[in-house]
Here is the input.
Amino acid sequence: MTRPTSNLLPPTSARCHICHDPLSEDASTLCNQCHRPFHLRLRNDTDHKDCGDVWINEDYLSLEFACFECLGVASAGGQPREPPEGSGH
Here is the structure.
């Protein structure tokens, strides 16, 4: 059986651009902003890690996917980002 081609699924040999660990097809997706692959639990009852987030876009009634780097939570490599000046310093 061949894997369906989709722009929402990273290649099976891809690595997460946040933590650089290998991706599995049942727990990864592509960021809607930077279009790079990242870990994301697609079900709440699994133990996979999250390197991004997903939410419902209420204007378009669709799912939005974003990696932690595009959300400003972490830089590539999984390191927490320094808060902007004046925010938490």
In short: The CA atoms of residues 78 and 86 lie 23 Å apart. Residues 10-77 form one domain.
